[in-house]
Amino acid sequence: MPLSTPDRSQVEPVIRRLNVLRPLSTEARTLLEYAMLEGVQRAGSGEDLISEGDAVDSVRLVLSGWLCRYKTLEDGRRQIVNFLFPGESCDAHAFLLSVMDHSIATMTPVIYTEIKRARFEGLVASDRTLAEAFWCETLVNSAIQREWAINLGRRVAFERVAHLFCEIVERLRPVGMVDGNSCVMPVTQMDLADATGLSVVHLNRTVQELRASGLIVLRDRTLTISDLDALKNAALFSPSYLQLYRRD
Amino acid sequence: MPLSTPDRSQVEPVIRRLNVLRPLSTEARTLLEYAMLEGVQRAGSGEDLISEGDAVDSVRLVLSGWLCRYKTLEDGRRQIVNFLFPGESCDAHAFLLSVMDHSIATMTPVIYTEIKRARFEGLVASDRTLAEAFWCETLVNSAIQREWAINLGRRVAFERVAHLFCEIVERLRPVGMVDGNSCVMPVTQMDLADATGLSVVHLNRTVQELRASGLIVLRDRTLTISDLDALKNAALFSPSYLQLYRRD
DNA sequence: GCGCACTGTTAACTTATTGAAATGCCGGAA
DNA sequence: TTCCGGCATTTCAATAAGTTAACAGTGCGC
To answer: What's the rounded Cα separation, in Å, for the pair A48 and A181?
Structure first.
């Protein structure tokens, strides 16, 4: 359903993020803003926006809320392979492949905008900075994916969960969703377990350890990081893969 | 060092792979072939072609040999996050980001071709099918990366190693490196351990288990898969993420 | 109010995986 | 040939993580 009151500010996270990745021309910004405002949609929590095996014919951009990419095995085991935060893009250019290799689900109520394939191709064809910004977006996504591989393969549970929290905070900060050293943590421990490759029980144990070590407070769906540097150290976290700052 | 005898057939794996991802126009094929033949290079086994933190200013395409992308933690723990096989591209468009988030190393002697950034940009600007093929290549790479995440996060050691072997065979097959049900396995068990997120000891045990169950023979750097369907079942392997066949 | 589902928490126990160390097997260098 | 280093293999004890199950808090529908 189209949103009743299109509001330019709601698409700002996307513009801002792309602009950090590649400075956008004024026209690019205007064109994109316009296209985004036309396709605004809402989804409830826990919905699949697209599923493994589905064909793709549009690009979705997240305006608010948390989503995840995930894959499942036949017997039900599930791995969240990435989160999607406001300003990020679900699947730029994914229509170049025949079908989705993974699913995308909302973890909170979500507002996103959908740009149909033809429209999107017109946009990126019309402006080089826009095309490059979207490519950067997918490249950063790949880099995050690689960091998740080393997280899952080589960090122990404690470091792994700490690393996830560090990453979440650093990805939420640029879109203004971090207040001091706190942010919302709207997902269940089962989701966190699926993101870190742990069992729910062991994830819970690990969260307790993080609490006991004084690094975090996690209560009432709010994560507070008492000492971010200490948490980063514990997690062996180094944020360069997130490409948070514009290169010169 | 440039290769003494440029030979059109040596760049064929790249052309063939891109052509599966997106049918290339005849001109595109010719242009790319020409550019590739100009930049042919060799590297020995165990060399870093590029390291985490390095700036990127060219695109490398693998003509022969095995490489890997890997990341390390400060204390030396290492995770191979992907392999690179003949026909594949190391870092198309990676120059859009400021620095490498990971390293690329050769695991065997390698022949590759290097196309400088400006040249590469000219190529993809001149032909739409070429640009799309390279984009597809990076998208498939992302899909593989996601499959590795579920492999590392949710498969147990036995399934994990089985899955890696399935993937290797399916990725080598299109470039003619699989002979019947056998292929070379030129890497050490330590490399396989780093790719599967296991310790060397446990990887060795797991390989023994795979042998004992009659699924594989691994000897003299040669992997023979006795019953591929059985191995795929054991691995919960489903090859669609590899995008091996051209979509219609 | 009551029951119910979902989530978080904890315990006890089992299993998977790691780590250190020793052994043997090559193949290459001297 | 001998020595040596890299690699595969095995053992054993130690530890990390999974499994099952129970229980408590919370919010929700009725």
So the answer is: 31
